[in-house]
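Try it yourself: sequence plus magnesium ion, in.
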Amino acid sequence: MFNEARFIKSVFKLDDLPKDNIPEIILCGRSNVGKSSFINSILNRKNLAKTSSTPGKTRSINYYLIDNKFYFVDLPGFGYAKASKKERELWGKLIEDYLQKSKNIILSLHFIDGRHKPAELDLMLSKFMLRTGISYIVVLTKSDKLNQSEIHSAKKNIIDEIPGLIHKENLFIYSAVTQFGKKDMLKILSKHVGK
Ligand code: GTP
Ligand code: MG
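Structure, out:
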């Protein structure tokens, strides 16, 4: 269980990344899959991270300091069709540069909407993350929208597409609405931050 969570800042350009060496847990994935909602739900906070039913809500790299111990880093979602090409390129570049530059990432959480098969960009992201050697976890979101057999198929699909995923080790099912999967997520996060 985490106690204290504070929004620290939104970063739009690399120069503004925090200069401290606090460990970072990053949240990445397509737009609208529930990254910001996850932050609120796991921390029991209603509106700490801004969420929206309109894709493309998070457009900067947002830092939340948890228990003075680690950051949740909420990244802008990719694959947001309505953004202009220029805007998409800018975010893409910001995220890419950040991933290359940051030395403090201890865990990468890749969020995928459980109702959909992983997109091409998801597969690219997973390949990229697996190559970096940073601990990598896939979270299938919005499980409240799925019945048991659909959850089963979603798990099977993702295991078929991304190598090395094992349920409850580096693959988790979550719902920010019902809080399904919260206990398991808290456990794995605590393990990574050494709590
Ligand atoms: P970007 O900031 O655009 O990258 O999106 P995001 O991944 O941060 O998604 P966000 O948390 O803003 O959620 C997008 C929409 O999905 C919102 O309308 C949320 O209420 C909804 N949502 C998020 N998580 C869940 C969930 O577990 N279940 C359901 N049913 N809806 C969810
Ligand atoms: Mg967001």
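One thing you can check immediately is this: The chain has a mean pLDDT of 91.
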